[in-house]
Design brief:
Blueprint (H helix, E strand, L loop, with lengths): L3 H6 L4 H5 L3 H9 L7 H14 L9 E5 L6 H9 L7 E3 L4 E3 L2 E5 L6 H12 L14 H15 L3 E5 L12 H13 L5 E5 L1 H7 L3 H6 E5 L5 H12 L12 H11 L3 H17 L7 H4 L2 H9 L13
Helix pairs in contact: 3-13, 4-5, 6-7, 11-13, 12-13, 13-15
């Protein structure tokens, strides 16, 4: 029998995990998994086109934008996964070149914190950035651009750019200048993930309007939601077949507003509850149960009051 420890250390086949104990199957259900859908497919295609080909004097850039939990980061990771193999070590230069340099903007970041984070990410790839975190902004700027030249990534991705404090108040010029400089180093394509605030500011600049592709991710349509949910449910190791009727589907869709992160957690919590209770299938009553909906409320994803009277 597959155990919880075995699941943590590897990826068992689906028949093996189906025969596993309760803890192992719950761990398996909690794992991140990629389920494609039309919006994500369009975004991935645009990101691929952005990094394909020789460097340009005016590199194309992409902003994937939308509210929280629509799958911006997951979509980027699905795009970036095949490029990991393109990373390589140059023995002549003694430098490891990443395929795509990935940076997550820290919470409440100002320009100095953003560049400190960039330098930390560059440390494994170049010696010129080591020991400089916390230096003056002028020094950090100079060395970050030098390190980017050394590391020579094919693109730079920045997640959660809406955390950049300069997006609020009078800091828009700082934001735009920062991105403009980063893009100009080695004619580097940028792939940015952010909220509507990022989208609004980038669209105020004529140069960025011409350079950026703006890809919006939003809540799924009902038809998209049904297809996505069925694909997701097929990955859960429940020992009885789950057939959710249209009324229950509409309940999950309305509770989630089609936001992928909410859909995933609703169905995941329902699958875990089905295993814990021995029912081994997701039923309408489980989807509406207090145990599942309260877990969602704790995550600020739905309001429990939306389920009352629907047992």
């Amino acid at each position: 029998m597959v155990t919880a420890n075995a699941v943590k250390s590897g990826t068992p086949s689906f028949p093996a995990i189906l025969a596993a104990d309760e803890d192992a199957r719950i761990i398996y259900i909690k794992r991140d998994r990629w389920i494609s859908h039309p919006q994500a497919d369009r975004a991935i295609r645009r990101m691929r086109l952005t990094v394909t080909g020789e460097p340009s004097l005016r590199p194309r850039c992409v902003l994937v934008w939308g509210p929280s939990n629509v799958g911006k980061t997951a979509t980027y990771k699905a795009f970036a996964k095949p490029y990991a193999a393109a990373a390589h070590f140059d023995p002549e230069e003694g430098v490891f070149h990443p395929s795509i340099l990935e940076v997550e903007c820290p919470a409440e970041a100002d320009e100095a914190r953003l560049f400190d984070t960039l330098l930390e990410k560059l440390e494994p790839f170049t010696s010129s950035s080591r020991g400089l975190v916390g230096s003056s902004l002028r020094v950090v700027h100079r060395e970050a651009y030098r390190a980017l030249e050394d590391a020579a990534p094919m693109a730079l991705s920045i997640d959660n750019l809406n955390n950049f404090a300069a997006f609020r108040g009078a800091g828009q010029t700082t934001t735009l200048n920062t991105l403009r400089r980063l893009s100009s180093v080695r004619r580097l394509p940028l792939i940015i993930m952010g909220t509507e605030a990022v989208h609004s500011i980038l669209r105020t600049d004529k140069q960025f309007l011409e350079r950026f592709s703006f890809i919006r991710l939003k809540g799924l349509s009902y038809d998209e939601f049904v297809i996505f949910s069925r694909r997701l449910l097929s990955t859960y190791p429940l020992r009885r077949s789950t057939a959710i009727d249209e009324e229950a589907m509409k309940f999950v869709f309305e509770a989630s507003e089609g936001i992928i992160g909410r859909v995933v957690i609703h169905l995941r919590e329902a699958a875990i509850f089905a295993i814990e209770t021995g029912q081994e299938e997701i039923t309408n009553s489980i989807l509406r149960s207090d145990e599942v909906l309260e877990a969602l409320e704790a995550l600020k994803l739905v309001k429990v009051t939306s389920s009352r009277g629907h047992k």
